Amino acid sequence: MNNGMLETERLLKEYRRNKERVNALQGEIKRLAPEEHSDYIEYRMYGSGYSGAAPKFVMEKGVEVSQLNKVEAAAMEYRKGCVSDYRRARAEMEKELKRMRYDIAVVEEGVELLGRINKKYGTIVKSYYINCVAMEQTAYTMNMSLSRCYGVCREAVRCLAGLICGNGGTRDAV
Predict the structure, then answer these.
(1) What is the torsional sign of CA 163, 164, 168, 172?
(2) Strand 56-60 versus strand 63-67 pairing type
(3) Are 118 and 171 in contact (CB under 8 A)?
Protein backbone atom coordinates (compact mmCIF):
# COMPACT_ATOMS: atom_id res chain seq x y z
CA MET A 1 0.00 0.00 0.00
CA ASN A 2 2.90 2.34 0.76
CA ASN A 3 4.24 2.04 -2.79
CA GLY A 4 0.76 2.74 -4.21
CA MET A 5 0.46 5.75 -1.94
CA LEU A 6 3.79 7.14 -3.15
CA GLU A 7 2.75 6.63 -6.77
CA THR A 8 -0.61 8.30 -6.13
CA GLU A 9 1.07 11.26 -4.45
CA ARG A 10 3.46 11.56 -7.41
CA LEU A 11 0.49 11.61 -9.81
CA LEU A 12 -1.21 14.29 -7.73
CA LYS A 13 1.91 16.46 -7.53
CA GLU A 14 2.54 16.20 -11.27
CA TYR A 15 -1.10 16.88 -12.22
CA ARG A 16 -0.72 20.63 -12.90
CA ARG A 17 2.59 20.21 -14.73
CA ASN A 18 1.11 17.44 -16.86
CA LYS A 19 -1.88 19.62 -17.81
CA GLU A 20 0.46 22.40 -18.94
CA ARG A 21 2.74 19.95 -20.75
CA VAL A 22 -0.26 18.46 -22.61
CA ASN A 23 -1.17 21.92 -23.92
CA ALA A 24 2.44 22.55 -24.96
CA LEU A 25 2.70 19.18 -26.74
CA GLN A 26 -0.58 19.74 -28.58
CA GLY A 27 0.74 23.07 -29.83
CA GLU A 28 4.04 21.51 -30.87
CA ILE A 29 2.26 18.73 -32.78
CA LYS A 30 0.12 21.32 -34.56
CA ARG A 31 3.28 23.19 -35.54
CA LEU A 32 4.66 19.96 -36.98
CA ALA A 33 1.79 19.71 -39.45
CA PRO A 34 2.95 18.00 -42.65
CA GLU A 35 2.50 21.03 -44.90
CA GLU A 36 4.59 23.24 -42.61
CA HIS A 37 7.12 20.48 -42.15
CA SER A 38 7.56 20.02 -45.90
CA ASP A 39 8.52 23.71 -46.12
CA TYR A 40 11.18 23.06 -43.49
CA ILE A 41 12.41 19.99 -45.36
CA GLU A 42 12.62 21.97 -48.60
CA TYR A 43 14.60 24.66 -46.78
CA ARG A 44 17.01 22.05 -45.42
CA MET A 45 17.30 20.42 -48.84
CA TYR A 46 18.14 23.70 -50.59
CA GLY A 47 20.72 24.34 -47.89
CA SER A 48 22.36 21.00 -48.67
CA GLY A 49 22.63 21.68 -52.40
CA TYR A 50 19.25 20.75 -53.83
CA SER A 51 18.39 23.06 -56.73
CA GLY A 52 14.77 22.08 -57.25
CA ALA A 53 15.52 21.20 -60.87
CA ALA A 54 13.52 18.52 -62.60
CA PRO A 55 15.38 15.31 -63.31
CA LYS A 56 16.98 15.04 -66.70
CA PHE A 57 16.01 12.24 -69.00
CA VAL A 58 18.65 10.06 -70.61
CA MET A 59 18.56 7.04 -72.84
CA GLU A 60 19.85 3.82 -71.33
CA LYS A 61 19.76 0.69 -73.50
CA GLY A 62 17.18 2.32 -75.75
CA VAL A 63 14.84 3.27 -72.87
CA GLU A 64 14.32 6.80 -71.64
CA VAL A 65 14.93 7.01 -67.87
CA SER A 66 15.09 9.92 -65.49
CA GLN A 67 18.31 10.55 -63.72
CA LEU A 68 19.28 12.95 -60.95
CA ASN A 69 22.75 14.33 -60.66
CA LYS A 70 24.70 13.38 -57.53
CA VAL A 71 23.85 16.55 -55.59
CA GLU A 72 20.14 16.14 -56.33
CA ALA A 73 20.23 12.47 -55.37
CA ALA A 74 22.02 13.26 -52.10
CA ALA A 75 19.44 15.95 -51.32
CA MET A 76 16.61 13.49 -51.96
CA GLU A 77 18.23 11.00 -49.58
CA TYR A 78 18.57 13.79 -47.03
CA ARG A 79 14.86 14.49 -47.45
CA LYS A 80 14.04 10.88 -46.63
CA GLY A 81 16.15 11.17 -43.47
CA CYS A 82 14.39 14.42 -42.48
CA VAL A 83 10.99 12.83 -43.01
CA SER A 84 11.88 9.80 -40.88
CA ASP A 85 13.26 12.07 -38.12
CA TYR A 86 10.06 14.10 -38.27
CA ARG A 87 7.88 11.00 -37.99
CA ARG A 88 9.95 9.63 -35.12
CA ALA A 89 9.79 12.94 -33.19
CA ARG A 90 6.07 13.24 -33.75
CA ALA A 91 5.47 9.64 -32.62
CA GLU A 92 7.46 10.27 -29.43
CA MET A 93 5.45 13.42 -28.69
CA GLU A 94 2.17 11.60 -29.28
CA LYS A 95 3.30 8.75 -27.01
CA GLU A 96 4.17 11.21 -24.21
CA LEU A 97 0.89 13.05 -24.77
CA LYS A 98 -1.08 9.80 -24.46
CA ARG A 99 0.69 8.86 -21.21
CA MET A 100 0.09 12.29 -19.69
CA ARG A 101 -3.57 12.30 -20.70
CA TYR A 102 -3.94 8.92 -19.02
CA ASP A 103 -2.30 10.19 -15.81
CA ILE A 104 -4.56 13.26 -15.83
CA ALA A 105 -7.68 11.14 -16.35
CA VAL A 106 -6.70 8.79 -13.51
CA VAL A 107 -6.25 11.72 -11.12
CA GLU A 108 -9.46 13.49 -12.14
CA GLU A 109 -11.61 10.36 -11.94
CA GLY A 110 -10.00 9.28 -8.66
CA VAL A 111 -10.54 12.68 -7.02
CA GLU A 112 -14.13 12.78 -8.25
CA LEU A 113 -14.81 9.33 -6.81
CA LEU A 114 -13.03 10.25 -3.58
CA GLY A 115 -15.28 13.32 -3.27
CA ARG A 116 -18.36 11.13 -3.63
CA ILE A 117 -17.10 8.74 -0.95
CA ASN A 118 -15.94 11.38 1.53
CA LYS A 119 -16.63 15.03 0.74
CA LYS A 120 -13.96 16.32 3.15
CA TYR A 121 -11.26 14.15 1.55
CA GLY A 122 -12.31 15.20 -1.94
CA THR A 123 -12.30 18.89 -1.00
CA ILE A 124 -8.86 18.81 0.59
CA VAL A 125 -7.22 16.85 -2.24
CA LYS A 126 -8.85 19.01 -4.90
CA SER A 127 -7.87 22.21 -3.10
CA TYR A 128 -4.28 21.28 -2.26
CA TYR A 129 -3.18 19.18 -5.24
CA ILE A 130 -5.47 20.11 -8.13
CA ASN A 131 -6.01 23.85 -7.48
CA CYS A 132 -2.60 24.36 -5.76
CA VAL A 133 -4.05 26.28 -2.81
CA ALA A 134 -1.66 26.55 0.14
CA MET A 135 -2.44 24.11 2.95
CA GLU A 136 -2.77 27.04 5.38
CA GLN A 137 -5.57 28.51 3.25
CA THR A 138 -7.22 25.10 2.86
CA ALA A 139 -7.11 24.56 6.64
CA TYR A 140 -8.58 28.01 7.23
CA THR A 141 -11.48 27.50 4.79
CA MET A 142 -12.27 24.09 6.29
CA ASN A 143 -12.03 25.39 9.89
CA MET A 144 -9.25 22.97 10.86
CA SER A 145 -5.88 23.33 12.44
CA LEU A 146 -2.98 23.10 10.02
CA SER A 147 -1.68 19.85 11.52
CA ARG A 148 -5.15 18.30 11.40
CA CYS A 149 -5.54 19.37 7.77
CA TYR A 150 -2.21 17.74 6.84
CA GLY A 151 -3.33 14.57 8.64
CA VAL A 152 -6.66 14.49 6.83
CA CYS A 153 -4.84 15.14 3.54
CA ARG A 154 -2.54 12.19 4.22
CA GLU A 155 -5.58 9.99 4.99
CA ALA A 156 -7.24 11.22 1.79
CA VAL A 157 -4.17 10.34 -0.30
CA ARG A 158 -4.06 6.90 1.34
CA CYS A 159 -7.74 6.41 0.49
CA LEU A 160 -7.19 7.67 -3.07
CA ALA A 161 -4.26 5.26 -3.44
CA GLY A 162 -6.61 2.46 -2.45
CA LEU A 163 -9.11 3.57 -5.06
CA ILE A 164 -6.56 3.95 -7.85
CA CYS A 165 -4.47 0.88 -7.04
CA GLY A 166 -7.49 -1.25 -6.16
CA ASN A 167 -6.39 -2.08 -2.63
CA GLY A 168 -9.79 -1.41 -1.08
CA GLY A 169 -8.81 1.87 0.57
CA THR A 170 -12.47 2.92 0.73
CA ARG A 171 -13.01 1.29 4.14
CA ASP A 172 -10.90 4.00 5.76
CA ALA A 173 -13.03 6.77 4.24
CA VAL A 174 -16.48 5.55 5.20
Answers:
(1) negative
(2) antiparallel
(3) no
